[in-house]
Amino acid sequence: MIFPWQLQTRLTGYLAGNMLRRRQRFPYVLMLEPLFRCNLACAGCGRIREFGDSLDKTLSREECAAAVEESGAPVVSITGGEPLIHPEIGGIVDDITRRHRFVYLCTNGTLLQRSLKKFRPSPYLSFVVHLDGQAATHDRNAGRSGVFDKALSGIRTAKAAGFQVRTNTTIYSNSDLDEVKGLFGTLAESGVDGVMVSPAFSFDTVENDIFLTRSQAHDIFRTLAPYSRDFRYCNTPVYWDFLSGRKTLSCTPWSNPTRNPIGWKRPCYLITDGHAATFRELMEETPWEKYGVGNDERCANCMLHSGFEASAIEAAGRSPKDLWRMAKWSLLGA
Prior knowledge:
Blueprint: H1 5-20, E1 29-32, H2 47-50, H3 61-71, E2 75-78, H4 89-98, E3 102-107, H5 112-115, E4 125-130, H6 135-142, H7 147-160, E5 164-171, H8 177-189, E6 194-199, H9 214-224, H10 237-243, E7 258-259, E8 264-267, E9 272-276, H11 279-285, H12 305-316, H13 320-332
Parallel strand pairs: 1-2, 1-7, 2-3, 3-4, 4-5, 5-6
Antiparallel strand pairs: 7-8, 8-9
Helix pairs in contact: 3-4, 10-12
């Protein structure tokens, strides 16, 4: 299975329950940012630039637990910043997994090896390590030498200790696809449980011509798709169709709400037009119709999983053929 059976069972029941209640908008994944601070300043990241005046702010362990309960999402993606910097990160993860919610802890991997003692292997916990290329490329993007080797060492140590580890690779306009394929081979040899691939989002705060247009993304992901014969992709097959230009999907930004030290970020993980004080306010008072391709120019080239994986799941539910493909992928990873 590409994901633990516990997650697949929980998600199936959760989706069925919401559909029976005829809820049009509900969260799939809570994007929980307990802090903005990071130990790197990667070339394509807009987070520490956007919230530069709030780097001292954090969410407490109690605030994180409250956000999880408030949203009700079955999956929690802990992001940042670098979550492993947070002094209470072990307790935050434990509070969530004890509630049988699934945690995907996103990290640059540099602190992973020394942080493992704070966690216990569990089907409810997976580390997601961000790697954008082999050593030279990744270190250049991260702005520091040795980052790739530390991350890879952390991955191998975590796998040897019994943890689930997945990776996320962002594709930029200057990415070398042969190098990306080589990276996936290295990760497969290291025993990772799956690799996620994402097109870069063009942050306003990043002054760099490294981002993809939609047509560029289609060409690149058509090239990457056949690699699934050799590597375990975490991206669903319907989402791959969208990335490759074979299917059109509408963004569902409410499916991945973001809670950070300022509040509930609106409208989505990537765009900031203010913050709501509560999850209910976010869901009920955000003008969702103003966002998405054709409505907001900032959304023109966005194809990220945080806006479209839930759309892919919903689209699959309307097609017996796609539903079978999704079931096959979830069981066999292909």
